[in-house]
User: Which sequence fits this backbone?
């Protein structure tokens, strides 16, 4: 029996040839591929500025640094997201303030977001959970009223748009991931996009040791430069960028396949008693995966369900395994009580994520639906 994996990088002949070309040359970093990838990404998203980075975590760190986030500041962070966002705030010396999710979509609850603003709040962050765009109009309203920066985590939302404008361009800065199971991959990799020239300038300098090469460009020593900021080395290399250029060409096809798979899987799993599919198929969505909430009595038996499905060749995942305030570090550092964000807790502890990526076809979708139906029947019968 073959296994349907949750995620699988779509690396083909084009990517292999592009990487081989890099290896045949002598330029492994500071080369033309990173620039080409940034330019192609800017074209695809419509961003005036796109800066390639090492990872999404690196992108988020650079984004908060560019917004000047530091000690004493509070930053609103969704409880239902990847820990990278909270860590990026924490590394800047600021405090992540967690906001619970909307039970219908899993995106941040916008009423709670507005209510969480204090005198110390400097920025609001959102994640376009499962590729469904957050209502950015309402986020921007809150941000304008309190003069806050807006950071968008688009790690699982590449291709998602609101009224035609790509996610990441509604707030001040948007961050992307090219980790192997995301919409496209460069092995490890990330991108920052922004409409703001000042943020783009600071991100691109702090990405590379804070160096400003333009300052001394008129001097005779071509290697001379000035250090304008404290910085990091968060650059992307030529090998990753070469993959990224090829992956981006295939992205429109990937997105179509994801939408088809999502709709077919949602229709199928919608007919299974005990499952409630989270509604992440709104306008402009980019279908990262499908998350199904388990109703009682299945909810308490999630691990058994996941293990049984795995045994039957259906790979699944959990997005995300713990609400951030429930994780050991944030619980102990800030004294959050267990399940302080009950909606995020329900999603984290009582849901299963199913694949919809371009590595699966309609026959795989049908196999997932049939297998889930049978396994759920068996578990419920034994309950
Ligand atoms: C995967 C993911 C990240 C982390 O991305 P890396 O490129 O691995 O650093 C950040 N945020 C979200 C929402 C993610 O899903």
Assistant:
């Amino acid at each position: 029996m073959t296994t349907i994996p949750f995620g699988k990088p779509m690396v083909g002949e084009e990517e292999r040839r592009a990487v081989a070309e890099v290896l045949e040359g002598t330029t492994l970093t500071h080369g033309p591929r990173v620039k080409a990838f940034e330019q192609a990404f800017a074209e695809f998203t419509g961003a005036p500025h796109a800066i390639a980075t090492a990872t999404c975590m690196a992108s988020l760190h650079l984004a908060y640094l560019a917004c000047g986030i530091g000690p004493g500041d509070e930053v609103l962070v969704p409880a239902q997201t990847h820990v990278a966002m909270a860590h990026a705030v924490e590394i800047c010396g600021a405090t992540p303030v967690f906001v619970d999710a909307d039970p219908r979509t899993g995106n941040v609850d916008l009423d709670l977001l507005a209510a969480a603003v204090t005198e110390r709040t400097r920025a609001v962050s959102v994640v376009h959970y499962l590729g469904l765009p957050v209502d950015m109009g309402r986020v921007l309203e809150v941000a304008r009223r309190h003069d806050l920066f807006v950071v968008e985590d688009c790690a699982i939302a590449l291709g998602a748009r609101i009224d035609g404008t790509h996610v990441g361009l509604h707030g001040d800065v948007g961050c992307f991931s090219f980790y192997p199971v995301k919409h496209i991959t460069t092995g490890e990799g990330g991108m920052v996009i922004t409409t703001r020239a000042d943020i783009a300038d600071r991100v691109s300098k702090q990405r590379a040791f804070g160096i400003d090469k333009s300052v001394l460009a008129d001097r005779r020593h071509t290697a001379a430069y000035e250090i304008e900021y404290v910085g990091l080395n968060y650059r992307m290399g030529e090998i990753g960028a070469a993959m990224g250029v090829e992956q981006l060409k295939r992205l429109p096809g990937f997105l179509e396949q994801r939408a088809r798979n999502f709709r077919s899987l949602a229709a199928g799993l919608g007919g299974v008693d005990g499952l409630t599919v989270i509604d992440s198929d709104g306008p402009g969505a980019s279908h990262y995966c499908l998350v199904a909430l388990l109703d009682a009595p299945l909810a308490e038996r999630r691990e058994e369900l996941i293990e049984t499905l795995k045994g039957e060749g259906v790979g699944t995942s959990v997005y995300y395994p713990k609400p951030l305030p429930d994780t050991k570090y944030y619980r102990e550092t800030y004294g959050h009580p267990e399940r302080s964000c009950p909606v995020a807790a329900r999603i984290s502890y009582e849901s299963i994520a199913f694949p919809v990526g371009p590595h699966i076809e309609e026959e795989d979708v049908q196999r997932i639906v049939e297998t889930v139906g049978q396994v759920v029947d068996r578990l419920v019968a034994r309950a």
Summary: The domain at 13-247 is CATH 3.40.640.10 (Aspartate Aminotransferase; domain 2). The chain has a mean pLDDT of 96. The two ends are 28 Å apart (CA to CA).
